[in-house]
Amino acid sequence: MRLFTALRERRPSLAAGLLALRSKAARGQIRMSSSLPVAAVCQMTATPDKDANFSACTRLVEQAKEGGASMVFLPEGFDYIGSNREETLVLSETLDGDIITRYTHLARKLDVWLSLGGFHERGHDWKTDRRIYNSHIIINGQGEIVSVYRKGHLFDVELTSKGVSLRESAFTVPGTRLLPPVQTPIGKVLLRARAIETQCFVLAAAQVGAHHAKRTSYGHALAVDPWGVVIGDCGGSDVGVTLIQIDLQALQDIRRDMPVQQHRREKDFYCSLD
């Protein structure tokens, strides 16, 4: 919320309300009319080709900026999605490498904040263990990295009935303990639940379509308001951008009228139920 508070200081508040639309028209033809802060949730199809991925993301960011966005959200794996473990490791970079440097330049050029979800960052002991972080990076409009979150809840799953084994922990170093959203049909319900119980706007960028012969993504990049209402959905087939107006006054009103944070019980209460 502090990010959008900072962004709003650059724009006088002229109107209230929420508006979301799927941006499928030609670039430059759609722009938010209100001066409320605008966020853009992007959907893309990353491949092992980092240059092609950067070009695709640049087009999405430029489209979002032309639509009036102050902050643009790109999905996990925006940099690339490798076709196997070795390729995933070889393509990884450090925070001061070429890919993130390109994005800092892009943010500064367009004067837009970027949320880069799921960057393949080489770990601190890369030379000895060849493991990486799954890092979420926030870049401000001056091209400065202002926050890095390293995913802690790694995705390990064994689907024995389908012969599928996925072990992110085999090559990824855990960071903090926060659980990021999952984009699946169930994930859509979880995102709505998180929005309601935290009284926040939830913005979840996503991948869509076939990345290579072994992997396809579900899509449905979402924006959810504090009541759990889906106010933006990129669908399950195409790349694109959804533009969302962030009404911070409406958010404050919701939290005032239903102060759920004040209703939380101390952890000792739950221990007493054992």
Describe the structure concisely.
The model is unreliable at 5-29 and 177-183 (pLDDT under 50). The protein has eight helices and 14 strands. It is of the alpha+beta class and 274 residues long.
- 3D shape: globular
The biggest beta sheet is recorded as: 9 strands, mixed
Tell how many strands the DSSP assignment holds. 14
Structural class: alpha+beta
Uncertain runs are: 5-29, 177-183
Helix proportion = 25-40%
Write the element-wise H/E pattern from the N-terminal end onward.
Answer: HEEHEHHEHEEEEHEEEEEEHH
* Oligomeric state as shown: single chain
**Average predicted local confidence, pLDDT:** 84
What is the gyration radius calculated from CA atoms? 19 Å
Through-space gap between termini: 36 Å
Q: What percentage of the residues does DSSP assign to strands (E)? A: 25-35%
Number of helices: 8
Protein name: CN hydrolase domain-containing protein
InterPro entries: C-N_Hydrolase, C-N_Hydrolase_sf
Domain CN hydrolase: 36-248
